[in-house]
Amino acid sequence: MNIHRTNTILYCNRWGATVKFYRDRVKLLVLLQKAWFVEFQLTDNSCLSVADAAHTSIDSAGGAGLTLSWSVEDIDAVHGRMLADGLHVSPFTVTWGSRAFYLFDPEGNRIEIWARP
Q: Where are the alpha helices (DSSP H) in 37-85?
């Protein structure tokens, strides 16, 4: 199997707040926006979508059992910008030899931001 593109879809009860979080607070680029579905670009071949669970056949997991893990180049700059923007981010930790910090979206999904040493 040769996968060309990935897309993680979050089914949300707090859809509007979650869309605003990723668009306005995390500042992800919107690739597609429909009445109840928004797709954000993470990388050239990877996306994150947020779907309003009220319009789907799949319920929200409410953040249970899910971590979005994103590797970044300048973790200090990302952490500083998120703090300056008023996001609730954790202090830095070391996880598997990499520096990391965490935050949660309005739906309760955990986001891990990390960088290699």
A: 75-84
